[in-house]
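mind reviewing this stuff:

——
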Amino acid sequence: MVQKSLERRVEMLEKRVEILELLPERVTAVELQIVQLRDDLRVEFSELRNEIRTGDEETRRSLRDEIRVGDEETRTTLRGEIRAGDEETRRVLRDEIRAGDEETRRVLQDEIRAGDGETRRALRDEMRELFAENGRQMRVLHEDVIARIATIREGR
């Protein structure tokens, strides 16, 4: 009877250890996803900057041709407007990119914190169960040893 119970307990303990062994893989997978996301964000922002630069260059070329056709006053006016528009565009895009970065950081931090909390709770619960189970097993083994010692003494 005790042997079956002990075997069952060992099986349960082995299952729990198997579950715990999977945790590093899961954490590594999350870490890889975060690294991939960060790399993807860098690439996307770089591409966006390149597209903005390309768009700015195309706009400048087109407007320069039109300005050359017109008079000096028109050229002066358009250059001023273009500069103001470019600065405003850069300012707006910087603000939007910063806001997007901040939102992305906030969301990722919240998700990481939530995942960390869940992982800690699960590990804490598993460890409590394992310690309780180990304590019970140690008491059973201790009682068994005491009973064997008593049997040996009686035999002498």
Remarks:
- Residues 2-155 form one domain.
